[in-house]
Specification:
The protein is α/β, with parallel strands linked by helices. Helices cover about 30% and strands about 25% of the residues. It is built from ten helices and twelve strands. It has an eight-stranded mixed beta sheet with strand order 6-7-8-3-9-10-12-11, sandwiched between helices. The chain has a four-stranded antiparallel beta sheet with strand order 2-1-4-5, with helices on one face.
């Protein structure tokens, strides 16, 4: 683990058991939500995680936060395996890792005031006295662009963007090292999205925050991310810096995703790659490469052997047997 690496996810796996519809069957089935995922996030950077709905992004976020336990692998945070921590040591590490959720109203307790919501981390970790907590909450409200006068109001009195600002204030209350943004702007209007993204950027600079930014919107991820990981059916298929992923995608799935981004120019004709067929079930995914049933370039080895996430250069890796195939070209 490098000295500037804040988070290292190594070979993490999470399967969820599902009940068989046949009452007399003894066979067990599992949803393979996250399968052998590895990546690193350096201090001060934003790592964007993209992919279709149901690919395992949110499950991975909850694994990193410790909200659910991984079946295997390592989640090394500040040099310690998060999965091995217990008691006071786990509690101390949790202070350094916070989360901003997708739906701001559902993540805020409607029976609590804004002041109570934002000061909840202080209560949990036993920091500051009552007077200090009130002052800190007022400061946090100002930081996220809200008036101090809102401290005694309730979540239903705010708009979606304002609620998300409250959620962000709660997330940064303890000055964490890592903030996980799980679809943090997807439930907001486009005009409000840009305001929240600018706020997150300003807070990152001010507090030297590190972000794991999860989204299905590739244009948003490009705007905020230093590095990007692309997930498909529970696995990472491509990882690289933002410019490389968007200007020179190598994996067929990444190419297909990027080709679907609309361009606000009616005169520009862009070729769109269509992946045929339905998304396979995570209960019974294809053997070998999980994209093999939909990939237009698949050859027999793709159906037989899982491709490794191999480095293409210093800051770019992809899991594909066909990277040397002349058919795989950059999308223009």
């Amino acid at each position: 683990m490098k000295s500037n690496t804040l988070l290292e996810v190594r070979n993490v796996k999470k399967y969820f058991p599902v009940k068989d519809k046949n009452l007399f069957s003894s066979q067990k089935h599992y949803v393979q939500a996250v399968n052998d995922v590895s990546f690193t996030i350096n201090e001060g950077e934003t790592f964007g995680l993209v992919g279709e709905s149901g690919c395992g992004k949110s499950t991975l976020a909850r694994l990193i936060m410790g909200l659910i336990k991984a079946d295997s692998g390592e989640i090394n945070f500040q040099g310690k395996n998060f999965l091995d921590l217990h008691g006071k040591e786990l509690r101390k590490s949790r202070k350094q890792m916070q989360m901003v959720f997708q739906k701001p109203y559902e993540s805020l307790n409607p029976k609590m005031t804004v002041g109570q919501i934002i000061s909840a981390p202080f209560d949990i970790h036993g920091v500051y006295n009552k007077k200090e907590r009130i002052q800190k909450v007022k400061e946090l409200l100002e930081m996220v662009g809200l008036s101090q006068q809102y401290i005694n109001r309730y979540p239903h009195e705010f708009s979606g963007g304002q609620r998300q600002r409250i959620g962000i204030a709660r997330a940064i209350a303890l000055h964490p090292k890592l903030v996980i943004c799980d679809e943090a702007v997807s439930a907001l209007d486009v005009s409000i999205q840009s305001q929240i993204l600018n706020l997150l950027n300003d807070l990152q600079k001010e507090f030297k925050l590190t972000y794991l930014f999860i989204s299905h919107d590739l244009s948003v991820v490009k705007h905020v991310s230093d590095k990007i990981g692309v997930m498909y059916l529970g696995e990472l298929v491509e990882v690289g810096d933002s410019e490389t992923i968007y200007n020179n995608p190598k994996h067929p799935y990444t190419q297909a995703l990027l080709s679907a981004i609309p361009i606000p120019d009616p005169t520009y004709k862009k070729e769109q790659i269509i992946l045929e067929g339905d998304l396979p079930s995570p209960i019974n995914p294809p053997s070998g490469c999980r994209l093999s049933t939909r990939c237009p370039y698949a050859i027999p080895v793709c159906k037989e052997m899982k491709p490794a996430l191999d480095p293409l250069d210093t800051n770019h890796s992809a899991a594909c047997h066909l990277l040397s195939n002349s058919k795989l070209q950059k999308i223009n």
